[in-house]
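so my prof wants the structure for this chain in the tokens format not the other one, which i didnt know existed until like an hour ago. anyway here's the sequence
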Amino acid sequence: MSAGPSRICVVTGGSKGIGAAVAADLSTAGHRVVLAARDPDALASAARALPGPSLTVPVDLTAPDAAETLFGRVEAEWGPAEVLVAAAGAGASARLTETGDELWEQQLALNLTAPFRCVRRALPSMLGARWGRIVVVTSVAAKVGAPYVAAYTAAKHGALGLVRAAAAEVAGTGVTVNAVCPGYVDTPMTDATVAAIVARTGRDEAQARAALARMQPIGRLIRPEEVAAVVRLLLEQEALNGQGLTVDGGGVQS
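here's what i got, hopefully its the right format
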């Protein structure tokens, strides 16, 4: 995509972590980048770090009207979105028997319903233009189960199912829909996981982080920039559609 025209790219969760890395990668490649997240100050900070044009849209993506607010603002200021990278997400840890309805609904709202609404809102203009790229950032939890993250895993499995169904529906239109499924990435979300491990097990922070690093066969956490590079690959190739590319150093082979 970097060799083609400048595109209007919407990145949810763009204020930090994987979303910020994707935004930086796209901006460096010459594209216009829209950053969406809850925190206006964090969004402004992330936008200042970009080398190219940016637009920030503070929005709670779990709100029913969030997708309309986001894409309506983009269309009013720049025009229809041509790329959507749905990177907003969060995890939560609890035993299945201790996972209450509120936690369950929170995980589905952010990790499944919000991407669904954004994909639904982005598709019409992409189909009309006969070009578009959608990438949903899921997790290895979209492909395998793990203890203490039932709600998160269910939501991420659902997000991958959404990607596959949408890809089948739009195949041959010039629009593609794919997912990236990272392992443990060196982001604030993993910092929260480390804190949860410390609280639950009594390990210190270094021990907890090392345990997560060992879960990748390469023996370290994945870098956000490595995930961004895979996102860019999916944006460049029309032949890649309906895929869930795992980025975890070889742990989940699929």
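also thought this was worth mentioning. Residues 135 and 231 are 7 Å apart (CA to CA).
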